[in-house]
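Minutes, methods subgroup
Present: GH (chair), OT, SY

1. OT presented the first of two proteins processed in the latest run. Sequence and structure tokens recorded below as shown on screen.
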Amino acid sequence: MQIAEDAENTLTLANDCQYGLVAGVFTKDVDKALSMARDIDVGQIFINGYFAGGVEVPFGGNKLSGVGREKGLEGLKSYCKVKSVVAKIS
């Protein structure tokens, strides 16, 4: 495993993978943590710890780490199908 020397290199290393399930960011700098969380291409980011989250927190991966989301409203949407019906009734 390589050790990243700076944030840009860290981001490159984190995204240089065909999978994208979960990542963790550990830092005292909240702005850097949120920036990394935005830019790392995974389905779930943990900052300064690991917590599974409740049933209201969507879970799922990006890239080859699965399809769709489980839990939360995003997970519920996978069970729904939108249909529009338009009729002129005289």
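2. SY then presented the second protein from the same run.
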Amino acid sequence: MYAQLTYFDGPRGADMLAAADFAAKERITPAIGSVPGTIRSYVLRRDDGSEVVLTLAETEQALLDGRTAIMSTRLLPGEDAALLPGPDRSEIYPVLEVVEHNGTPS
């Protein structure tokens, strides 16, 4: 399993967040969903609009294919490229260990 961390540095205002949320829902999530081997994504956002997206996939290639799928999409009608500057950086890591927490003290 592999994880990708994608960083969007803040501050980002309400207009940029609304544009990012629309793009994620209408264009990016469907593009990633079409890539075999992608497992799940978590979106983490602070009050200043900074964000980290954690994406898990079966292989590193699935993450790379996800990037390609996203970059091959076209902006939808009404999307403003100026409000969608893209991530500040992205990193891929192999997942070394998964720990399930069941709420029982060890």
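Chair's summary of item 2: The chain has one domain: 2-78+87-94.
Next meeting: continue with the remaining queue.
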